Each structure stands twice: as C-alpha cells, then as structure tokens.
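Recall the central idea of this unit: under ordinary conditions, the amino acid sequence of a chain determines the structure it adopts. In this exercise we apply that idea directly, starting from the sequence alone.
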Amino acid sequence: MTMPNKALLEDAIGPVSRETFERLVALEVLFRKWAGRINLVAPSTLPDLWHRHIIDSAQLVKYAPTELRWLDIGSGGGFPGLVLGVLLRARSGASIELVESNQKKVSFLRVAAAQLELPVKVHAIRVEQAATTISTPEIVTARALAPLAELLDLAFPFFDEHTRGLFHKGRDYRRELEESADDWAFDLLEHPSVVEADSVILDISNVRRHSA
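Accordingly, the structure predicted from this sequence is:
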C-alpha cells in the first residue's frame, strides 16, 4: 500500500504547506471510510490510493498555477475535484464546482467538502443539465468520464474563448484524438502524466465544433 508521502507529492506538483498535506491525508482517511460502504472507485485501486488517485489528481494544479474558477464534471468519488479543492484553498479567491448525479457520491462529496472546509460547491445534477446554472470557468477538468469526442460534447457548453480543459487520458489517447477530429477542432498541449508512463493530461483550448 502506498502511504501518504509529502516528498512524493512535491515531486509531482512542487512545494505544498504542511496544512495542505495534512488536509490531503485527512481526505484519504475520509475517503477510505466511505469507500467501505459505497463504491467510490474501483476496489482494486484502493491499495495505491495516494499515488493512483490523489497525486494523479493533484498534478493538474501545476498546469494552471493562477486560475481561480474551476469546474470538475462527472466528479464521482472526488478525483480530481476534492483534491483540487484542497490545493485551491491556498489560492486566494479560488473555488471549484463539482457536478455529479449519483446521489450517494454527492453525499460523500458534500460531507468531505464541509468537513475539510474546502472552497467547493457540489451540484447534484447531470452534466448535460448543468451549463445553465454554472458560470463559465477558467478550467474544466474530467477524469475517467468519457471518450474525448463525447467528453468535448459534454464540456463544450462551459467553454468560452478563455476556458481550458485539463483532461486525464490513458494509453489510448491518440486514438481518441483521431476520433474526435471528425467533429471537433481545438488547440492542444500534451502533458505527460507523473503517475502513469503511457498516460497524459490533455490541455485543450479554443474548442470549435465543425460545421455540419
């Protein structure tokens, strides 16, 4: 089992305060408590929770070091949304909105956000219904939500000319990029994952839908 490790975290994202680290440890403890009762992530990934989920989520902040308005869609068990909430506490004026329709997961997200005093607002709603209730963010995140073409369809209503998407993708990301090209155009940066050698963070901006 991978134990909480501040040095490992700082290797991934740079310096963090003791308070931030301790909040991430508290998040892991709370997550494991709830994961014993409801399915928050694949059980096979629980032994490596710190590296596989927490550090994997945390790495996003280094690609948007000053942005204040964040949105995580399909938040599930809180990765990356709750982890980002912990890290954004240290950024004056920053907040993140989480969109999740599963009521059991929503309950966990709200309890965690409240207990850890995070700048997080949880919307118990489907992503497709959320665009009318959420202001345009600077950063949209999503992890293990959908193939890229479908993900862009879900995320597009939240984008304006200044919005960027930071999307976790696995080893098949090149195929997903090719498949999305039929319907979408966008500017792209590929950031190698600090957790998985074959995975990336797709940094997407200037998203346009091809005309029919």
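Residues 18-35 form the longest helix (18 residues).
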